Write the structure tokens for this entry.
Amino acid sequence: MNTLTTKAEPASSTAPTEDTPSVGAGRPARRGPLFLLALGALTALLALAVVHISQGTAPVGLRTLWGALATLWTDTDGTHQADAVLVASRLPRLAAGLVVGCALGAAGAVLQSVSRNVLASPDTLAVNAGAYFAVVAVAAFGISLPPLPAGGTAMVGGLLAAGTVLGLARAGAGTTRLVLAGSALTLGLSGLSHMLLLLRAQQTTGLYAWGNGSLAQIGMQTIDRLAPVALLALIGLVVLARRLDILALGDDGAVVVGVSPRLTRATAVVLAVVLSAVSVTVAGPIGFVGLCAPAIVRLIGAKVPALVRHRAFIPASAVAGVLVVLGADVLLRALFGAQAGASVPTGIVTSFFGAVVLVYLAHRSRGGGSTGPEAAFARLRSRRAFVATLTAVTTALVLAVVAATLLGDAPLLLGDVGNWLTGRSGRLVTFVLDTRVPRIAAALLAGAALATAGAVVQAVSRNPLAEPGILGVVGGAGVGAVVTLTAVPLAGFWLISGSALAGAAAAAALVFGLAARRGLEQDRLVLIGIGVSAGTAALVSLMIVLTDPYNGTKALVWLSGSTYGRTFPEVLPVLGALAVSLPVLALRRRELDLIGLDADTPRLLGIRLGSARLGLLGIAVVLTAAAVAAVGVIGFVGLVAPHAARALVGQRHGRVLPVAALMGSLLVVVADTIGRTVIAPAQISVGVVTAVIGAPYFGWLLWRSKASR
């Protein structure tokens, strides 16, 4: 298992794994530099606070600010209206930034320590996604909760998500494994959240923008009730600082001195989730602050050794979190103006910045190797098993297509289909099948393309838990398509598809270019791809929030994956991509087999590993981009179908590719049929259904691979 470290991290001979952040026990350090650093941080914080307060639709000077503060204590009859606006809006926004920054910075620092992983944070552990889903689920059913119960709801959701990810990925099990587990659970929970946002749009009005993290506040009511909770949790973490220092020496050493590793970790995780829940309740899930703040402190710790102990590391990360949040909010309103600052979520800026930090850390990582279980690649199956599997999957796909043709908001009979094929059907049947059959064709072809691309990505990365979305291709395609949707509301399918293809190509070029160091090592490729995906998601959210409501809803539906309104000409690009790619992959199936084994065997047999990986990944990019352009974003197909195919027919790609393509088509056709029928005449996007199906399956894969270790 290879893990991620950075060149800027201070070395620690006591750390049990390479993932362990460089905090913990160490030699006593002089406090002079630490005092100067604290003074500088407080000065920067004060300066940011002054600038933050001064931003808005009306100019505010120091005299006005001082008068407003005095009014807060002395004015009881509401006569100072201008100052009242300042007190009711700007000061609460500043207070929200302070609370959220402290909470996320400290939570990220502790989560990194207890998981011994420099990329652990409320985002990568799906804490924010779990908390957000819990809040959306409550709001979707028309329940309005006061601040404290809302915070409790968010805490339960976040705690369940964090426990699931940590249980699946295992403490110290590796950076890529943890990020994959968190990303998969986040995708599943986000799919459920998007489904509720679309189906219960009236009850969840405004929650999409809030879901990206916004500091906008009306009054101090929420902050007054939740700030003490955050303060108590922060104090609890500082009290645990010495135990966390001891825990960094290793579990055996901690037990010797009387520290329970399990109890310490559990307590720290609960307190970190409480902080994250407070943040989500106050401002929504503001992304990547919990990753960036400890990373900044760790980089400074190379020059100021006193920061490596948790009693300094946790408060320093909290202060760094405040600087990141307030700095992002100041930058947001400076770039988009005071009026946009009220509608554009601050979390979009922090997510983009955090994505850059994640890419930077991955780019500077040392080591690369297979991060997932390789048992799935080692199975052998007989030719008879392959033929039987191929026959069974083909039969199931035919039955699924027949069911998809007959079922929907207007059920049909086989005789109706026969009449339609011979041109003798009535007007209603003709209309239904003219719209339904192209949707089935789109699902069929897109599923095959995504599954084939997933099989290639898993072989090249030697990671059966990878999927095409980690290359950033899906996110890049989303940026290209949403740019067109928002800039040209009347854009046709071909313009949107071309934009999606261009965005996918640009994202793939960025990922491959950054990961090309040391020959596209798979750990680096996966982590950079996830970082680029996060950055593109932030850009998409920005465009959706800035656009008018009609285009925003249209983009949100497209990002959820949908076959609605597809015609036969619109699926031709996917058909063309499959027609070109499948023969090429069939000819290169031996390369896929060898590259999936290890890094040395292909070189010994004369295969240029770097160029071979690049060419194969290029094919995966084309297939993924074509599918995304046709039906939007559909997750987990590229993970589930190839893995199931390998489990059934073995590791030879001459057998895996056709079975995976058929299983991908089967999965998307079934998901589309479920989405069209379960709440007919309303519909659930196919991407949401596949996310709901795929997330548990992915968790089972991680659990199974963990048990096999």
The chain has two domains: 32-363, 381-707. The chain has a mean pLDDT of 76. The domain at 381-707 is CATH 1.10.3470.10 (ABC transporter involved in vitamin B12 uptake, BtuC).
